């Protein structure tokens, strides 16, 4: 057992920290202004400055960390974890700047693992190059998203095409006009075995019958920085049969392969949010004077700061161990731990953000600080891929089995 | 000791419930659309339907409950409490519909108690008639709002006028063009005793030098339904000396007189929010099926519902007792209890809203339900008139004194 | 609605407070010594000083408050509530001193309501006079106590007698040799309807076949001050048929009639424990100096004290309202509220005791202060008459029904 | 970074698990009876069966794991951690069986590091052989134990002797007659620098003037299994000068060296308690039927089990990382992490034990299960070496410094 990062990771951490200090943090005010302008103009492109950040990241070789092997940075999950955490410190800019933003990472992994050479050429390459963005359309408004087998969208073979009908929502990134390609999950064979009914298929943004209906809000935010969360309808959407990913009936298995890494990436980045919140809370507490002394001298504020540190340290180690398990025992071998961090992360980070907000006073809830928006984002993790309660139930079942 | 509402209160509760069922709830979808349109058009008038609701309320005699005596409904705080709670069930519409919305209620009380006949004629009468709205400008961005003596805005006598310079923020209702009159707190004599430096003065919306700079967001919301929360600057704003409320140096005392009722009214209405959240949570739990049975059958969901009921019942009784104390022992005699409900209310209602959101799934955070917006509103109460931590500290000091 | 105690109650509160100040508190050190000696000698009689306290209470007319009507003090539940709370402040002595201690109160109520004249003469009269004590034997080790219909003890008619076989545990007071009479619940007709199988019968302590097997511990305490909690076996215990309370099959109904008041009395007294804990916590915080200042100056300690006050105030009002409901709508009409206070009370008081202990340092867990023993007692309330989880489930069902 | 135990550790884990299964668990019922008999007889020797367990452990080579180097098992802290955790599963027997029980471990470390050859021969050797036990006398009733510089006990040089006067309490293990030697901390020079006033000195049990006054209770337990917690007085206790450990003035430094490992050992063992509690809770939930189904099917119980797992996994990793830091950066380099686990451990384990108790019903609080006694033990950790609040304050200060 060894708790030190390996040399390669330490080197990349150093590079990423330099990139944050030299490039990302200085860009935040401009990005904030550009996003505020987008809200005013009701446009959905990411802040223009992002292109510059991506160019600089590429130049520095800080790119596609998430993808193992030659096409990516060749890192293990464990090596990637602290880098993803660092990007979480500037969640609106840094993940996208190094081409490690959700949902594209998951989509690239799917194409990387299951795509045909033609699919890779047409879609994976521009995604890896950061030239386009993508979305993943699974969740549906009418059925509980905690069970992927409930999905109702129909994907019906018709000659050399498939025809898609259905409705999706909470499709992250879809409002961004750069999101050129959608991976859509639906049912090709409702009469097959429960886990063999689903397939995944690629749908281009401008396909007739594909309609982006509206952006979902989270609290009052519409998350323009990362393309919002759209409700989408598919009305007789026709795509060539060659757009199918893998074979018919493999949709559920592909989704499972995609979900594990997706969940841990969220947790990694959330740690970065938590660390930045502690930093902001500490600085504010040192600066802000009330009743004649800095509020950092107040016992309750110190209690919050200490508790934050104690909770973060524990959470990070479990995230790292989970990454290590994924590397050594596979996603399936890390199943329980992935559930555990999915449960623990929003609990911990929400608590910290709440306290950081409180230390900032009413301003902490406003557009003058990012804390409330981070809170909103973290709050969604308690539902993402099914509510925590479903995961707790499953985790308890596994625990009970050990003692039966 | 008697826990039954008196006959008058019971009668008014019946009338208010009928008004909610027949008028307010049916108007909610239209109001929601009008507010969404206002967001799109970036306008700040309240939803047009409000005028109809006010007309109907007036016709039914459901008006100005908050104001004791002839000019209002002649109710005690205890009699008003359950009515205010009922309005909280439709917080965007009902309080304004019966002319019992903050911050106007507090402003009307100030004018009622401290205004000159001319001030009453010019400003109180149209406010009581619901023809105009108003704002209360106390909080400043540069100083801790927990201590009113910190205020920096200058109100300087110059011949027959006062000249005002300063900056305020979180001025609720100010973005609404109907908010014609502002009660502004500032310092007329920085050299006087600590609690005699402040004065209150009336400033009309269109006075030169009075600038509404921007609307503050709360969790991404800008609260258009009740006129937002503005940042405002005063640059050599000149008003006639007759606009002063009371005498010079009485500002702090007037503020204190205003704060007690203001706080309890928030708590009363918050109970209505909590009750409606429990109702929504229960209905949703009964309707929504997951894994083959309604989620109302899940033990964890039942635990949330039971806890919500247990917490609401306790909180309501403390709010009612506080109202009774204000009636029988005065605002000062109810000081500790007002602090107690100010601390207890957001804790309780936030917890319930969080659970109600969770039962609604991701939709619970979106514009499809009001829950997340209510959460944002309740969250601000943990700062309003100073953070909870300040009130807890003061309450503890009072407790310790008993045992010293 | 009126939150003031009536004149009679206020007068009795004054008398009880004088009794506590003049008689009970001064007796605590002696009682503590006598109980410590009993532990050493392994004897189970209550502290000898109790007889003196009872004599003084009787002399002052502070006696049998719990019992309505002529034979008791003629108080309503609402009038009794603050008096019971006061006795809770010295939980080892005061309830017994005024003959209002569990489980005797419930047993006296049962005999009062359902006893024959002979039973009353033989058992109720000496109980009301404080000459003997009693126990109530319902809970059994083998079945879940949350459902009284599970009870397995057999009560079989045999000529003019009943013969009892079975095993009970957690029979409070039974180790005390003064506990001369036991009300035993068992089944007379296992083939009857589910709620008509049970009967209650009186068993004298010295009846052959009645064996007190052992005292149950609670966190290491054996609760000698109130006669411990015994495990008891009944082996062919023969009692005359005239010992039956009410008719065969009425046992469940009698138990229900007994449980409501029993639960609220526990809650009333627990409030007294909480108040004394806040008092002790405050005094200790003022006296104890750490790092150069009293710990009452520490923000975290103040937070605990303020939270304690806020929680107690809410809880007391719900307990009082429940008492009022029992008086005005009957035990059945107060069913939900009784469940609510049964859930809320241990949560609140446990939390306060934990903080009071922490303020006392390690000594707070020891025999030098009563705090840890109170904690142990309060902790048992989360199981008493079925675990909280059962009550929450039932309360949630009632709430859901309102919205179905 | 690597989360796998090394081969040596894995081998020892296997041996320890076999020892638990074959020797310790089967001995628990006998030990329980022997301890109950000791309570009855008011004797303080450990259960007689312990000698057999120690003999068997020695035979298997499972001995003195805690001590690095030749005289001990030569393990790092990281290697020791999982073994200590396993002993925590049977906290009354296993740590003592393998001669790794507090406070002896800390005392042996002190003698190992700072003892003279004579002191080692006379005291360390029989301790390492498990022939005698020992105590550590630092805490005093009159001063806050959170600051070791407060200590008042006087150690005065008088010719070739030192004469000790003072009073200590919470001296763990001291009631056990086998505790032959005490390490006593006191002041040799009250006029020296604040951290140079203290010295440590060895005092034999039968020295004149050394009086064991009483055993402190924790809740109602007196912890006979590990020699209780004594209050001790020193009245002109005279010991040879050669009994001094190290030089005069080195007491504070020695105490610091002792505290770090002591704290982490408690945390390691507490993890074992938590794991066994989850095991007991799971088994009980599977076995116990209520309302027609095992309570393992209840959502709330599953929530507790899942949360327990999630919290334990995080806590264990932080304990392990802290051990690794102590190995690689020294006790001082692990200072913040030691504070963090001291804060986190009782929070986590108390919560789990509370839930395990609740699943066991009232029996869970009684002598029929060890859960309540474990709870009592864990509760003391929130005070041990100063209350958590002091450690949180210090940890927060360290965090704030990073951002100043």
UniProtKB/TrEMBL annotation, chains A, B, C, D:
<protein>
    <submittedName>
        <fullName>Acyl-CoA dehydrogenase</fullName>
    </submittedName>
</protein>
<dbReference type="GO" id="GO:0005737">
    <property type="term" value="C:cytoplasm"/>
</dbReference>
<dbReference type="Pfam" id="PF02770">
    <property type="entry name" value="Acyl-CoA_dh_M"/>
</dbReference>
<dbReference type="InterPro" id="IPR009075">
    <property type="entry name" value="AcylCo_DH/oxidase_C"/>
</dbReference>
<dbReference type="Pfam" id="PF02771">
    <property type="entry name" value="Acyl-CoA_dh_N"/>
</dbReference>
<keyword id="KW-0285">Flavoprotein</keyword>
<dbReference type="InterPro" id="IPR037069">
    <property type="entry name" value="AcylCoA_DH/ox_N_sf"/>
</dbReference>
<feature type="domain" description="Acyl-CoA dehydrogenase/oxidase N-terminal">
    <location>
        <begin position="46"/>
        <end position="131"/>
    </location>
</feature>
<comment type="subunit">
    <text>Homodimer.</text>
</comment>
<dbReference type="InterPro" id="IPR009100">
    <property type="entry name" value="AcylCoA_DH/oxidase_NM_dom_sf"/>
</dbReference>
<dbReference type="InterPro" id="IPR013786">
    <property type="entry name" value="AcylCoA_DH/ox_N"/>
</dbReference>
<dbReference type="InterPro" id="IPR036250">
    <property type="entry name" value="AcylCo_DH-like_C"/>
</dbReference>
<dbReference type="InterPro" id="IPR006091">
    <property type="entry name" value="Acyl-CoA_Oxase/DH_mid-dom"/>
</dbReference>
<keyword id="KW-0560">Oxidoreductase</keyword>
<keyword id="KW-0274">FAD</keyword>
<dbReference type="GO" id="GO:0033539">
    <property type="term" value="P:fatty acid beta-oxidation using acyl-CoA dehydrogenase"/>
</dbReference>
<comment type="similarity">
    <text>Belongs to the acyl-CoA dehydrogenase family.</text>
</comment>
<dbReference type="InterPro" id="IPR046373">
    <property type="entry name" value="Acyl-CoA_Oxase/DH_mid-dom_sf"/>
</dbReference>
<dbReference type="GO" id="GO:0003995">
    <property type="term" value="F:acyl-CoA dehydrogenase activity"/>
</dbReference>
<dbReference type="Pfam" id="PF00441">
    <property type="entry name" value="Acyl-CoA_dh_1"/>
</dbReference>
<dbReference type="InterPro" id="IPR050741">
    <property type="entry name" value="Acyl-CoA_dehydrogenase"/>
</dbReference>
<feature type="domain" description="Acyl-CoA dehydrogenase/oxidase C-terminal">
    <location>
        <begin position="249"/>
        <end position="398"/>
    </location>
</feature>
<dbReference type="GO" id="GO:0050660">
    <property type="term" value="F:flavin adenine dinucleotide binding"/>
</dbReference>
<feature type="domain" description="Acyl-CoA oxidase/dehydrogenase middle">
    <location>
        <begin position="135"/>
        <end position="237"/>
    </location>
</feature>
